[in-house]
Amino acid sequence: MADINDLISQKKEIETLLKSLEDEYGRAQISDATYNEIKSKNMEKLKKIQEEIDKLGGSEQESVEKQTPVSEVQPPQAVSQPISSTNLAIQPKTTADLTKIKSEIMLEINKKIDTEINKLNIEFEKQTPVSEVQPPQAVSQPISSTNLAIQPKTTADSTKIKSEIMLEINKKIDTEINKLNIELEKIKAFLDAQKDLRTATDEKLQRLTESIGELRSMLFQKESEIDKMNVKVQRIEEVFNDVKPEQYTRELQKRDKELANQNLRLEKLEKMSYDMVKDVNDMRNVFKEIGSVENLVNVSKRINEKFIKMENMLKDVEKISEKLEKHFVEINKKLEEFEEYKNKQLQIDGLSKDLLKAVDDINIKIGKLASEEEVFKLKEMLNDFTKDLEDVKKSVKSGIPFVGPLPEEIQKLQEEKDKIKTFLDSIDEQYKSRAIKEEEYKRIREANLQKLADIDAKIRESIEKIKGIPNVQPQPMQQPVQQTPQIQEQPQQEDKASKLLSELKDLYKKGLISE
For residue 132, which of 121, 165, 352, 421 sits 20 to 30 Å off, Cα-Cα? Predict the structure, then answer.
């Protein structure tokens, strides 16, 4: 029974130890290697303990222990036996400490028992009558703690009480001893873990010491190398101080400049020598070709003849150049004229496009408004109107036959009209040559056309006034009947002419008819 309890307590201790180990590993207080080693060992222990519990049937025995009465509990001597650890193979090293603790506990328990018995005796004496009370000599005797002697009257009660107290004390002792064993097992497991940690830390320290030793050796080597380098640097500094490199570099730069200048001079001399050699060779060849002085004379004559020919050629070239300049000027003028013609052609193209558009519009309007008969009638009216206009012009130039010569007002108006027409023609030419802008051209043209219309109106008014005056010239008496119809027909023709003129003006303003 005691072995199963021990195994269960060991199992609980190992579980608590594993929990604490997990906490320490979570806090990063233990390395991975130590954590894995301790965990593997304790897990093996747990497996073994579980196997032992399964063999012994721990669950049934625990239930039996719970059902056993208090009288069957073993005394503290049986409990104080050493814990059997067959599977763990761990013997307690602190048996002397356990015996000391047990003896101290037993002494304290005996003291408590004595005090309890004394209290019970006092209560019993109070309850008993005075006649039955023993004399004070027998009561005043000391109570022996070893044998627990009680007066003969209360022996039966005291034995019962003692047995009950001993049973309770044995229970408490068992529980305390079990607790102590559990604590001891915890301490053992903790010590094992600490040993494992110490071994791991010792290994780490050994590695660190080895690495530190290696680092020290490396540092010593580097220090020695640095010392050697310092010595070499000092020597180099001494050499540089002796040599004075700045002066040396200056001298080298001067020498380099001198060498460069000398190289340039050499190149120039080489070129000069090469040119001289060429000139000498050319002179030799010339002298070879010349041969004698007669050849030189002949050559000079030929050269003079060639110079004369060259002068003649120059004169001819100058004449040709003058002719070319004239032709060039003429060509430029013709090109300018060609550009003008080109611009005029472009204007004509634009006008032709506008005329085509206008013709199209007229055709559309004519198709909508007039028929062939109406057009034919209009043509007849236009022909009549042109005839009337010619008659009017003739009459204006030669004077009205029945009135006489034209008055000065009409002549002045006619002169103004001619001037305006010439002015309009000149403006048209300027506009075609693009000497005037389109806006100014339109503005001047509209103003002058308005003036022409006003002059025409004035001329008509004056003609009508003149026609309203009776004829002064004598007429034969044979034609009295024919005179009246002529006078009646003339105002009708004038009305037709005025209507046609107004219609033509409208067509001209719309741009459907040219001048």
Answer: 165
Contacts 24+ apart (CB under 8 A), 173-181: 173/76, 173/79, 173/105, 173/109, 174/73, 174/74, 174/76, 174/79, 176/105, 177/76, 177/79, 177/80, 177/102, 178/5, 178/9, 178/79, 180/98, 180/101, 181/6, 181/9, 181/83
Q: Answer yes or no: pTM beyond 0.70.
A: no
Residues forming a β-bridge with 400: 404
CB 6 within 8 A of CB 181: yes
Name the H helices within 433-479: 438-468
Residue 395, both tokens:
């009459």
Q: Which residues are CB-contacts of 476 (< 8 A; sequence separation ≥ 6)?
A: none
What parts of the chain have a pLDDT lower than 70?
1-3, 29, 57-103, 105-106, 110, 120, 123-158, 243, 291-293, 366-372, 374-375, 378, 385, 388-389, 391-407, 466-515
What does residue 284 show for φ and ψ, rounded to 5 degrees? -60, -45
Cα gap 121→151, rounded to integer Å: 9
d(CA 264, CA 19): 94
For residues 242, 247, 251, 257, the Cα torsion angle rounded to the nearest 10 degrees is 150
Report yes or no: 2 and 84 within 8 Å, Cβ to Cβ. Answer: yes
* Both tokens assigned to 305: 């003849």
Name residue 404's beta-bridge partners.
400
At 313, list the tokens: 């050629």
